[in-house]
Amino acid sequence: MKSVVAPVKNVAATQIAFETLLQRSMGVPGIGLIHGPTGTGKTTATTYLYNQVNGVYVSARAHDTTISLTSRIVEELGAPPMYRISKCVDYIIEQMSMFERPLFIDEADYLMNDTRMLETVRDIYDGTEIPIILIGMDQIARRISTRKQFYNRISEWVEFRPADLEDVVTMADYLLDDGIKVDEELLDNLRMSSSGELRRITIGLSKIESLALANDLEIVTLDDWGDQPFHGLRG
Ligand SMILES: Nc1ncnc2c1ncn2[C@@H]1O[C@H](COP(=O)(O)OP(=O)(O)O)[C@@H](O)[C@H]1O
Ligand SMILES: [Mg+2]
Predict the structure, then answer these.
(1) Ligand 2 centroid, distance to 112 Cα (angstroms)
(2) Residue 42 CA: which ligand is closest?
(3) Where in the numbering of this chain does the ORC1/DEAH AAA+ ATPase domain appear (predicted)?
(4) Helix (H) or strand (E) holding 158
(5) pLDDT (tens digit, 9 = 90+) per residue, 154-194?
(6) pLDDT tens, 143-159?
(7) Which residues does 140 contact at the CB level (< 8 Å), separation at least 6?
């Protein structure tokens, strides 16, 4: 398997939303929200993006507080520890503004229970007006809509959806070793049995690739695969 990011629809939607944030008109707020179920490729898509745009990326954690989160952003920016929230926030605002570095906060669900953390992210946005992208799971969109001050600053929403057949074909084209093809019928089976989750599709594709290599197959069909599971135990 190749270790590349396949340009599936969710990846394209993320890029477009980010471009829209960058090019927004005066007065349009610049916070973006990416949300969707686990395994749909949110972290992969945003990691790919922030590397291209010199972004700053942090992943929130269950026990984060305002100081631990802002300290990690400061660390990501390459500065020594600062110990005070106000110092951290000032530094983050200065760096993001000076170098036009957008901020990506993954696992942002962990911010939702903590008003102070949300307000701090809002302060960072208001102090820079540089795009901030929050990445979270299913419930984040609903939960954030009750935080009006924050909600009103979001202008781009991307909902990550399960892969469709075209996405699975794209994944196969990009990830499988050269010379290995998979029949669409088998790919559609993989899509259904993985509920369109890219994480499980990746595991299934690697198993299909092993089968192709072991049996010297150029194209793997549903018949070649049989009824073995793609992932985990037989149901
Ligand atoms: N666009 C993609 N191209 C290739 N592999 C991908 C892609 N998106 C996801 N994957 C695979 O699926 C796994 C899970 O994706 P991840 O980005 O962690 O999902 P999420 O953050 O939504 O839970 C990744 O580790 C990677 O192996
Ligand atoms: Mg993730």
Answers:
(1) 16
(2) 1
(3) 29-143
(4) strand 154-159
(5) 999 999 999 999 999 999 999 999 999 999 999 999 999 99
(6) 999 999 899 999 999 99
(7) 33, 35, 108, 109, 112, 134
Asked whether the beta carbons of 76 and 58 are under 8 A apart, the reply is yes
Whether 43 lines ligand 1, by a CB cut-off of 6 Å, is: yes
DSSP 96: H
* Rounded Cα distance, 229 and 16, in Å: 36
Pocket test for ligand 1, best of 46, 134, 202 (most atoms within 8 A of CB): 202
pLDDT at 31 over 70: yes
Write down the pLDDT at residue 231.
Answer: 78
Please give the Cα distance from 44 to 209 (Å, whole number).
21
In this structure, whether the domain defined by 9-159 belongs to CATH 3.40.50.300 is answered with yes
Contact 50, 57 (CB under 8 A): yes
Is there a contact between 194 and 232 (Cβ–Cβ < 8 Å)? no
Determine whether the shortest distance from the Cβ of 136 to ligand 1 is under 6 A.
no
Beta-carbon contacts of residue 230 (< 8 Å; ≥ 6 apart): 189, 190, 193, 194, 200, 203, 204, 207, 208
CA of 45 to the centre of ligand 2 (A): 9
Tell the CATH topology of 165-225.
Answer: Helicase, Ruva Protein; domain 3 (1.10.8)
**More confident call, 188 vs 233:** 188
Tokens 């019928």 identify what position?
185
Q: Is 11 in the pocket of ligand 1 (CB under 6 A)?
A: yes
Q: Is 168 in the pocket of ligand 1 (CB under 6 A)?
A: no
